[in-house]
Amino acid sequence: MFCGDDSSKYLNDPIYGHIKLQDYVCKIIDTPQFQRLRYLKQLGTTYFVFPGAVHTRFEHCIGVSHLANTLVTRLRDYQPELGITERDIKCVTIAGLCHDLGHGPFSHVFEYSFMDRLSPSVNWSHENSSETMLEYLISDNKIESDKLFLFDIVSNQTSGADVDKFDFILRDCYYVGLKSSYDCSRLILSSRVIDQHICYEEKEYFNVYELFHTRYTSAIEFMLTDAMLKANEHLEISKSASDPKRFLYLTDGIIEEIAKNSTKELESSRSIIHKMKKRNLYKLVSEALFLPLDIEKVGQDWISPEKLCEKKPKNSNLNPNDIRISWNFIHFGKKKENPVDYVNFYTKKEPTKAFRIPINKKMLCYPTTFGEHVLRIFVCDSAKMSDCKTAFENLITSINIPLY
């Protein structure tokens, strides 16, 4: 980071090059709450599989802030009738900067695995803390309700096409070593506001489609969750989620804190972490794909560790505590629907008229489904892998649901 001629500073980002950081942005970056993001990896446990994926939420949030500032500034310059003020630009920039302050250790592992298993009734989520902060910024800075499009810049609830997604697709692909074909700069340059919605020029349809088309480490996530659950009573990890002063120090470093702690209470947690570091991971028993319509018919309750054990071979010592079940819904951002159907476009001939484009009007060969449920079954003890596989095969034959 180096200083400019004014009070601003410049940061050399691997994705966007030199990013200008205004003084008000630097003041937030220099707080302990924001500096904490340096110790939260953007992709959680993915770096165990892709060693280059060590980027953090710190640089992601700065990138989102940069894109938010770029987009809202362009809208102000090219559509002065919108009445976008310097205060609006500042608020949107800060919202992009602060949108991930509420994340716990290892990305979504803390939220969806640890907290859900420990206290499902609490309904803790990083979005709640991020939304609370954004709502405070809006009310405190008196953003008027007739500028609803400002909300869509950082977090677009209609289509999911926002600068948060712009950045993490580019940044994640860069650090994982994958190529992304979409160009966010083209989308920003073609953007304009029509009827309170951010729209893109019609010719950018395929660029928008690639944004959603781009984007697993389940065994490691289960092991991290188990290690934290076993350590929770001694370290009171879950209490930090509701205490901002303690949450400030809750980062990915919790695993090393457990590993170096020699107390007897953490012995089982240390053992799990030791196995994880030696790549002695929980074993994948089976993996199956299901279409959304099939899951809607039968749900997900047909399988559980207990129900698997009911189908285990005779004389097997397999028990529910040996089994971990993972459900992932992989989709383009709008569950079973095509998210691009919710993006507004315009043409050069009619730049003030917004419309949506059905995918079958643009592509001769297009997906018939935009989501799939992935079921993965793991065992903690590799010696019980065969019994668990047999149990799954016995269970699936009794369920009228197709596998893919």
UniProtKB/TrEMBL annotation:
CDD domains: HDc. Residues 53-178 form the HD/PDEase domain. Gene3D superfamilies: 3.30.70.2760, Hypothetical protein af1432. This is HD/PDEase domain-containing protein. Pfam families: HD. One of its GO terms (cellular component) is nucleus. InterPro entries: dGTPase-like (IPR050135), HD/PDEase_dom (IPR003607), HD_domain (IPR006674). It comes from Smittium angustum. It comes from the Eukaryota. GO terms for biological process: dGTP catabolic process. One of its GO terms (molecular function) is dGTPase activity. The lineage of its organism: Eukaryota, Fungi, Fungi incertae sedis, Zoopagomycota, Kickxellomycotina.
